[in-house]
């Protein structure tokens, strides 16, 4: 006689809407693809990047679900935390989840999380003590979480891997993200103008940041396409020579992993964990260095064979380190352990130490 089959884990993602722009939304979309016979994945959005109206509506709906939805023994609420308002919105929902006895976990994103947490240690500590498990993507984030007296589990972001990268007929360079100073759009435009690249376009995909002004006229070969859907971003990257992301501040931008997963090499800056992830499969330059950035762009524009070799190496690297199969197991193991425990995390951790 065999026992009853174990019920599937039901993981509810709470945070950025999967239909929105940005790296966190991309993580939500990717995590949703993990569903199988043993794992149900759904989402309750509580934030829409760039839309206050949609954020308010989404937060109201998700708060109602958090308060009144039926909770089962295999439920996990998995929160996507960034910084600032996220610690209020998702922090409230975390509190509701813990009051209801739900197993809660959190993944910390955010290019400015470390600075935010250092400046708001008590708020950050109170929120981060609520989940049973806190996942982090970078070592600086891990050190910050531990300094608040909270254990941290270092993980990688997952990304779907293309079956085979496009090797012929690639053209153009792509920037994808908010077009503004934090992502280094000003440096990129200066570098592109100085590089004098012929036969290629530089396509900028994304919303224009507030108070950021594009030069008029634009440098030759620059096309500002503006915001597009995730599928179009990937389609552009699939046949591009390279992704160019000269950010001044990042944690681990998903767009870099997505580009590498398509066999498209990356030109980026040495901020956050970018150099660690890209390693020797792309070109990494100092932030805010237009001359070095222009040289890197020109180098790949002038050498299709180098771009092809770097792209192949990038594809190989993410396939072994960031594929769904590699990353999913770590999360599922922690989620399963969480629901197996009785009211996990009920013993509160001490208040985080004050900054010295």
Automatic annotation (TrEMBL):
One of its GO terms (molecular function) is glycosyltransferase activity. The keyword Transcription regulation does not apply. Residues 1-24 are annotated as: Disordered. Keywords: Glycosyltransferase, Transferase. This is Glycosyltransferase involved in cell wall biosynthesis.
